[in-house]
Amino acid sequence: MLGRIPSGSLLPPTIRQLLGGTTSNARVQVNGWIKSVRRQKNITFAVISDGSSAKGIQAVIQNGSLAKALTNGASVRLGGTLADSPGKGQDKELRVEDVEVVGECDPAAYPIQKQALSTEYLRDNCHLRARTNTIAEMLRLRATTSDVLQHFFNSLGFCYVHTPITTSSDCEGAGETFRITPPAPSEPATEDNRPSEFFGHPAYLTVSSQLHLEALATALSRVYTLSPCFRAERSLTNRHLSEFWMLEAEWAFTQSVNDVCSVVEGAVKDVLDKTQSHAQAFANDAGRSRILEYLQTASSTPVWTRLSYSDAVTELAKYQASARRFQFEPAWGKPLQSEHERWLAEELVKGPVFVTDYPASLKPFYMRLNDDGKTVACFDLLVPHLGELVGGSLREERGDLLDKALENHQLDKTQYGWYSELRKYGGAPHGGFGLGFERLISWISGIENVRECIAMPRWAGRMLL
Ligand code: 4AD
Ligand code: MG
What we know:
By secondary structure, the protein is of the alpha+beta class. It has two domains: 15-110, CATH 2.40.50.140; 129-185 and 194-452, Bira Bifunctional Protein, Domain 2 (BirA Bifunctional Protein, domain 2, 2-Layer Sandwich), CATH 3.30.930. 31% of the residues lie in helices and 23% in strands. It has 13 helices and 16 strands. The strands form three sheets. It has an eight-stranded mixed beta sheet with strand order 6-10-11-16-15-14-13-12, sandwiched between helices. Strands 1-2-3-5-4 form a five-stranded mixed β-barrel. Strands 7-9-8 form a three-stranded antiparallel beta sheet, with no helix packed on it. Helix 4 packs across helix 6 (257-274), helix 4 (133-155) crosses helix 13 (437-445) and helix 6 (257-274) packs across helix 8 (286-300). It starts with 14 loop residues before the first helix and ends in a 20-residue tail after the last helix. Bound molecules: 4-amino-1,4-dioxobutan-2-aminium adenosine-5'-monophosphate and magnesium ion. Magnesium ion binds next to strand 15. 4-amino-1,4-dioxobutan-2-aminium adenosine-5'-monophosphate is lined by residues 171-172, 208, 210, 231, 233, 240-241, 244, 246, 248, 388-392, 432-434, 436, 438-439, 450.
């Protein structure tokens, strides 16, 4: 029995399990895809991968007629003996006794050739790109990262909840929501059959689960989710997707931004520590070894720097006065541009930095107003090489100040009625954050663009499948 799977219908071991196990000189079956074939005199060596690990298994085929059918990309079922390998580069190999080609693949036409393929070409062949080593490793890294985060939050007593994807509110109030509408009725509109909103009012794809998490935190205290988010923003940068995943956590009875930062720091450090083997797998050139250094520094720094927005602007302005390196003038009240963010993390702090207490006018309506009446109790976590990885804050729990913030942001109060009501019935100070999952993957892996940090990326102008 494996778990509760009835015996007799066991899944055969994956290549990872075979290579990691103690089985030797045993008869095994390997299912997978051919990554490469090398013929050497009378022996054929093929690498078979089933995606379970970065390394495939080396198959050794002595029988020429069996080897003939093996081509790159074909799916095969190989039977043979798993034996210690005399060759370099692998501990074990499969001595093949029988070959079944399950799905043929014409090597001349196969779009995933062995030579380096351009990123753009692979985006065009998105349905096949998981067959490349980098994308497959990225997908395994996503899975490990999500496991680590779930374990981290579960161990702190957070409840994993599922929040809706469709919503009537724009959490960030930035007007970047995708609107959902049903197909127009085929019948001509009549008095009783007027095209109407499917839900009775406008509906959108969520930009963030935060508001729903806040509602659940007023009952379950500590909640988190990993969920898709959608933003109709046209920024075509290497950090923006139209559909991305966000890890969001929200908890009640917290009163300090510093505490929220500490939870973020703990979560990200746990991921750094537990995904090291993946990060090493990506680190194969000079640029990437610099990234490994960044990750190493981040992991070993006992407490990441906290710097207020005001101090950050002072530092930026000082540097600009002497070096004139920024395209955008840093000034209090203006947003930090990505050149500023990267300078703060890479040059000033030389590591991750929480920039806290931004001016209220630069941030969404829900952030808690500080006593100075000008700034809000929030932070952005900026990391070297990437920039913003996480955003979070204390939430405005005081009903009257929340009303005022909605007004200041020119938002329709009636749409946020339920949200304001959370303050009325047993409201409590609370806070939370959202971490961009693809950005985290990009940071750990050193993959330059978040479009390569998700299986099937979407951005303005592009949705292939
Ligand atoms: O800073 P953001 O917009 O914050 C929120 O949405 C809050 N409601 C989160 C919360 O407090 N629960 O987004 C959070 C993070 C960003 O720091 C960034 O890492 C990522 O989400 N992100 C994106 N990632 C990829 N593509 C986009 N278009 C993204 N927009 C934000
Ligand atoms: Mg942000």
